[in-house]
């Protein structure tokens, strides 16, 4: 059963994105601020770090550092416990020749690699691509021609990966190669149209269902692996952007950009998940 969304941090994020649950806290990025945030549900503690440039997405490494896809490329970040400055260790800049692009959404693949997508920051060109960063720090382009990359979401049990081009309102599914080395057989999983909003960040659950946040859609949807709509969560903000599963809840980010007068826009939300 799914409870009502509750705003746990009225952060007024410009472009809140990329939530990551570490077992104790949810981390997320404000791409346009730019900043990183961390929220501890048990204590209610809120911590923020000013970022030197846009952080599109990130993973948490075993040593506590963040593996990030930033405006300029891949990097490892070290943050102080109480906020403040961020120490950046660059890894590579795979799109140094495309200065109008920036990295956007990304996730860890089943094989341990980091998949992250790029996009034209002005959202006018289809110059975005999907990149795979292997554990050795080598980046390889997987596919080009995207306008606004979002996802990916991995279903390891079915050998699938879901990829979104938000601007085209299209979610694709493809066959995953070797747990994350690449993909093939890409096809449309779901196509949306006028009035539906734009599929944004997404995640799979333990049953292989796909959950999608809809920019300008006021909602989060759950789909079965065969594409059937299973549940719809109305959100109190127009632009929910992404989600992450915690122990007994979903944490969802949102954006305030273009919605300066909307209450709670840019907040972090908790959606309780109850057995039954």
CATH superfamily descriptor: TolB, C-terminal domain
Radius of gyration: 17 Å
CATH C-level category: Mainly Beta
Q: Strands of the largest sheet, in order across it?
A: 1-24-23-22
> Could you describe the largest sheet, including whether it forms a barrel?
4 strands, antiparallel
Termini distance? Answer: 6 Å
* Strand coverage percent: over 45%
Q: Tell me the helix content.
A: under 10%
What does this structure look like?
It is built from no helices and 24 strands. It is mainly β. The chain has one domain (6-272): Neuraminidase (6 Propeller). Strands 1-24-23-22 form a 4-stranded antiparallel beta sheet, with no helix packed on it. Strands 2-3-4-5 form a 4-stranded antiparallel beta sheet, with no helix packed on it. A hairpin with a 5-residue loop joins strand 20 (219-223) and strand 21 (229-234). The mean pLDDT is 97.
């Amino acid at each position: 059963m799914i409870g009502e969304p509750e705003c746990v941090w009225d952060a007024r994020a410009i472009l809140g994105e990329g939530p990551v649950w570490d077992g104790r806290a949810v981390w997320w990025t404000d791409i346009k601020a730019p900043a990183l945030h961390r929220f501890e549900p048990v204590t209610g503690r809120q911590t923020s770090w000013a970022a030197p440039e846009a952080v599109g997405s990130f993973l948490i490494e075993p040593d506590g550092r963040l593996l990030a896809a930033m405006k300029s490329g891949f990097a490892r970040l070290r943050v102080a416990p109480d906020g403040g400055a961020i120490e950046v260790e660059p890894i590579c800049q795979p799109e140094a020749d495309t200065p109008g692009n920036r990295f956007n959404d990304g996730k860890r693949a089943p094989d341990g690699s980091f998949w992250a997508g790029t996009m034209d920051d002005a959202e006018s060109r289809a110059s975005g691509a999907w990149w795979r960063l292997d554990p050795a720090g080598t980046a390889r382009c997987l596919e080009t021609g995207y306008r606004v990359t979002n996802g990916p979401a991995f279903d390891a049990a079915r050998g699938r990966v879901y990829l979104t081009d938000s601007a085209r309102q299209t979610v694709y599914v493809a066959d995953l190669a070797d747990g994350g080395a690449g993909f093939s057989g890409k096809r449309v999983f779901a196509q949306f149209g006028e009035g539906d909003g734009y599929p944004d960040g997404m995640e799979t659950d333990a049953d292989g269902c796909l959950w999608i946040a809809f920019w300008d859609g006021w909602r989060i949807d759950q789909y079965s692996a065969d594409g059937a709509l299973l549940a719809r969560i109305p959100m109190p903000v127009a632009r929910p952007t992404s989600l992450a599963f915690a122990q007994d809840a979903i944490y969802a980010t949102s954006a305030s950009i273009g919605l300066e007068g909307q209450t709670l826009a840019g907040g972090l939300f908790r959606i309780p998940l109850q057995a039954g």
